[in-house]
Amino acid sequence: MEVAPTRLRLRTHLGILAAYAVLALWLTWPAILSLPSHYFTAGNNLYFYIKTPDAPQNIWNFWWTGYAVQHGMNPFFTPLLYYPEGLQMVLQTINPVAVLTAVPVTLTLGPVAAYNVTAIVAIMLTGYAGFLLARAFAPGVLGPFVAGVLLTASPFHVAKLDSGQLNFVTMQWLVFAVVALIYLSRKTSWWFVPITALAFGAVLYTDWYWALVTVLFGVVWAVVSLIRAEHPLGVMMRYGLFGGLALLITLPLILMLRNELSDPNLPLDLWALYTQGYSADLLGLFFPSGRHPFWSMQAEQFLVEMAPYGMVEGSYTAAGWVLSALGLLGIFWYGRQHWRLVVVAVVAWLFAMGPILYILGNETGIPMPYQLLQALPGLSTARRPNLFGVLTIMVFTIFAALAVARMRERMRPRTFGIVLGVIGVLAFVELLPPIRTTMTMERAEVYAQIAAREPGVVVDLPIENNTNSRTLINQIVHRQPILRGYVARPPYYPTLLYSPLPEHLGRMLVLPEADIISLDANALAAMQCYYQLRYVVIEPALTREGSEDRARAVMARLGGNLTPWYDDGRFRAYELPLHQDRCAPFVFLGEGWHEFEQNETYQWRWSEGVAGFFLVNPTNEEATLTLTIQAKERSDGQQVELWAINGEKMLASFPLHREMRDYHFTIQVPAGMHEFELRTSVTPEEGTPRELGIAVYELRVE
């Protein structure tokens, strides 16, 4: 039988919360001393970069949400990143519950304060949630209190704090949801069902990885709760009703993400490596604290050797030695009685080990159950298997509380006091917070001046390579749209991949003089009229030799002033003409084209079997455009199809003629950028690995 915990007075709960608040201040020290001005990280280049990109990215999340609320915008979609397409934020690490509840702090004290306060509160509430979780099984107050301390101070949890991954630090909602699901199997009152659904909603709108972890726990716990249940039908009905409410809560998320659950810009083999790198080792639960001030270097060297592909940050799932010892002792004493918890712990750890089993850093080749999840629709983006191991840590928390409660019950008070003191000293030594590095959000003067000038897109060069948040930090100051921006899940971004003006300016490349699309002054002016790339800021120390000259050459093609309006030795800033009176539709190439070729008479590109291109309607309304394709037949009877990718609709199918000629198509094009494809058969080119579709000599739109 499960323990039915006695009710505690409100005063007792408040006292416990206060104790966890003190613990949180210690674990996050010295954040409380400089809430609005500094954030703190720890580690070195073996474990994670001191200048973690995730902390400023999360600070940006608070800033953006406050900005959106102030300006009446949807916080779940930002037009300020990945301009002009914008970015769906729900699939990112925006942590909606945290950033929305912290809006008052953000608007009064700033986003850094909101980040620090949220971290402190998360550490406090995770401890309190761990206390409630342990109370569901262990009697008394002391054992559950100790267990909550060990849970929130666990090396895994603190490592996420020091890596700046606030979405994983705020795991209190996961623990609360697990508590609710446990009581759902015991309570006969139906009013508890909506409470459990709300707890799941808090998890879902904190981080969807935590939602997956919650779902796994809910499924396993529901199944084991039905075994030898006194009222199995009632349990099934309560869980069924909860599932229906949870689905309703999930529906808005599904609708927002229905077109976002794929990663077309990254190869599957790379994601396979990423997934394995974020998988726990068989013995990873017992690995040492990786950030300890006394032995961090030795521990991190060990952890690098143990981690798949050396991805320590992603695979690290340590519970802590004191928690593990107490948890194993509790399992020895109570494992048979609470076998359901043991099943949860084992299943969760099997999933945490990812697709292939690793033992002490050695790949065994043995496939693991996580491969089943990867086959489910919509879960191809789930690439952090080790997070399922948090359920195992939580089960250890429960058994640790049971062990402490048993020792208190069976030992003499003096003996128990000595044992508890030893546990406290060992836990204090093991869980000492790391020595942290003080970080600030830089406020460079050039970006402050841009904020005071006329609005326009900022091209912040060099564009980050997705391993730092430099351009996000700058955007908090200038508040203008930027190309790209550091996010957890980079979207498909054709503007920077293919569109000639932003691609070559943003990547500081030489803009070609000729192609099968127009690249003359009028064409570039039309592109600039659409993109409004106004401010180019270059930090020469971060660029390769010759990069700034190439960027200036692109600016010169636009007729821009090559004299910087700002130059402090570190930054140089230029302002480009916007050509707002020269807007016109334009076309640019996508994937599926061979290199540009020319002779004395013609210039052309061979298509592959499927060749993409984009049409841009710069107006705010749907327009009727004429697409012209100049091409000729490669082989007798060659057929070509024109497809609109949005909606996957074939617009035309036509045979090519033997002689070169223009093919005209009238297309209704909504405002903005839209992708199309030319599809045809291919023929291998003799003597080369190329496969040739059609030769296109010109592609234009009017």
TrEMBL record:
<feature type="transmembrane region" description="Helical">
    <location>
        <begin position="12"/>
        <end position="32"/>
    </location>
</feature>
<keyword id="KW-0812">Transmembrane</keyword>
<feature type="transmembrane region" description="Helical">
    <location>
        <begin position="387"/>
        <end position="404"/>
    </location>
</feature>
<feature type="transmembrane region" description="Helical">
    <location>
        <begin position="165"/>
        <end position="184"/>
    </location>
</feature>
<protein>
    <recommendedName>
        <fullName>Glycosyltransferase RgtA/B/C/D-like domain-containing protein</fullName>
    </recommendedName>
</protein>
<feature type="transmembrane region" description="Helical">
    <location>
        <begin position="416"/>
        <end position="435"/>
    </location>
</feature>
<feature type="transmembrane region" description="Helical">
    <location>
        <begin position="189"/>
        <end position="205"/>
    </location>
</feature>
<keyword id="KW-0472">Membrane</keyword>
<feature type="transmembrane region" description="Helical">
    <location>
        <begin position="141"/>
        <end position="159"/>
    </location>
</feature>
<feature type="transmembrane region" description="Helical">
    <location>
        <begin position="211"/>
        <end position="227"/>
    </location>
</feature>
<feature type="transmembrane region" description="Helical">
    <location>
        <begin position="316"/>
        <end position="334"/>
    </location>
</feature>
<feature type="transmembrane region" description="Helical">
    <location>
        <begin position="341"/>
        <end position="360"/>
    </location>
</feature>
<feature type="transmembrane region" description="Helical">
    <location>
        <begin position="239"/>
        <end position="257"/>
    </location>
</feature>
<keyword id="KW-1133">Transmembrane helix</keyword>
